[in-house]
Amino acid sequence: MSHARRGREPCTGRFSGILARSFLFGLFLAWTTAQVGWAQAEQDASRFDAGSPAGIADLKALEARIQTTVSKVAACVVGVSGGSGVVVSEDGHVLTVAHVSERAGRSVTVTFPDGRRVRAVTLGNDHGVDAGLVKIVEGGPWPHVEMGHSGDLQPGQWCLTLGYPVSFDRGKSPVLRIGRVLRSGPTIIMADSKIMGGDSGGPLFDLEGRVIGIGSRCDDRVILNVHVPIDCFRNQWERLVKGEDFNSLMRAVAFLGVAPADDPEDQRIGTVFPNSPAEKAGIKPGDAVVRFDGKPIGRYDDLPPLVQQKTPGDRVEIELRRGDEVLKVEASLAGVSG
Q1: 252-337, what's its fold?
Q2: How far apart are CA 65 and CA 208, in angstroms?
C-alpha cells in the first residue's frame, strides 16, 4: 500500500529526540492498525456475502437503481492530471486526494467525460487524511454532485466507485465498480469496490448518488481499498478553500521553548530556544522556575507536563528566581505538531 506523505522540518536538541521517538511510535502504531484493519475488512467482506441479492428480481432492481444513479453522476467525475476527482459545486470545486493535488497553487488540467479539458488550480490539502481540493478557473456553471455524509454509514451498505484507472483513456466515461462499505470511521472508509492506480481522487457514492468518500489507496490485493470520508472535507472545508497545506491528524502541542540544565532534578533552565515564547518573555538560561501558571515547580521535570496541559496561544504567568531576585513574567505559548 502506498500513499504520498510530506516531510517534516528537522528539529534539534533534546526536543527533537522526543518528537523523533513519538513519530516512530506513531508510524509503528499506524502500520499495526492498518494490518489489523485489512484483516478485519477481509473477514467483513466474507460475512457480507450473505447480504447479496436474494434472487433475480432483487438483482435486477439493484441493477436498475445503479444505472439510474450512474446516469445522474457520471458527467461530474473528472480526470485530474494523473488521478481522478469529482465536481461538487456549480462554480467548479473538485474533490480529489492530497497525493494527486500535492500542494496548493499548482496548475492542473481537469478532463470531463466528454473530452473537454479545462484549466484548474490546486487549493488546500489535508495530508493527514489525504484530502485535496481543486478549483476550475474557467467559467461555469459546471455539472456537479451532492456531498453526502459519512458519519452514519453502515457496514454492508452498497456503494459505487467511479474513476479513471491508468489503463483507461481520459476523455471517456469513467469506469464503474460496485461494492459494499466494510468499515467506516472518522478518517477512513474501507470498501470492496475495486480501485487501482489512476482511481486516486475518484468518488465513492451511495446509491442515491451522494459522494460519501474519495478514493485514496488500495491493498496489493486490489479488492480492499481505502477512501477519505466525505466528512473530512466538510470538517476542514474553510482551510481547504483558503489553500492551506496541513495535517489534521497532527495535534498541536503547547511549546514554551526551554530545556533543562544538566541535572533535571534542578529547577534551573539550561537552554532557552531562539525566538521561542520563553525568550520573548525574557526568560534566560540559569533562571529557576518557581511557579508555572500558579502551580509550584520543585524541579525542572515538573514543568513539561504543566506546559502540555495548556493550549497553543494561552498566556501564562511564570515565576522565576534569578540569583537573589524573584521575577514574574508572562509568556504566550506557541504550538508545535506532536
Answers
A1: Pdz3 Domain (2.30.42)
A2: 9
CB 92 within 8 A of CB 136: yes
Task: Classify 53-246 by CATH class.
Answer: mainly beta
Read off the pTM.
0.66
Q: Under 8 Å CB-to-CB from 19, ≥6 apart: which residues? A: 11, 336, 338
| Percent with pLDDT over 90 in the chain | 55
pLDDT in tens, 231-250: 999 999 999 999 999 998 87
Amino acid identity at 288: A
In Å, how far are 14, 76, 324 from 253, measured between CA atoms? 16, 40, 33
- For residue 168, the model assigns a pLDDT of 58
Report the half-sphere exposure of 77 (CA within 13 A, side-chain side).
Answer: 33
Which of 99, 110, 105 shows the shortest CA–CA distance to 121? 105
- Under a CB-based contact definition with an 8 Å cutoff, are residues 320 and 287 in contact? yes
Q: In whole angstroms, what is the distance from residue 126 CA to residue 285 CA?
A: 38
* 255-275 pLDDT per residue, tens: 999 998 877 678 899 999 999
User: Residues near 232 by Cβ (< 8 Å), separated by ≥ 6?
Assistant: 126, 129, 131, 150, 186, 187, 248
Peptide bond into 141 cis (omega under 30): yes
Question: pLDDT grade, residue 139 (50/70/90)?
Answer: confident
What are the start and end residues of each CATH 2.40.10.120 domain in the chain?
Answer: 53-246
Task: Dump pLDDT digits (tens) for 180-197.
Answer: 998 899 999 999 888 888
Residues of the chain with CATH 2.30.42.10: 252-337
Contact status, residue 316 vs residue 330, Cβ threshold 8 Å: yes
Burial 55-87 (b: 16+ CB within 10 A, else e): eeeeeeeeeeebeebbeebbbbbbbbbebbbbb
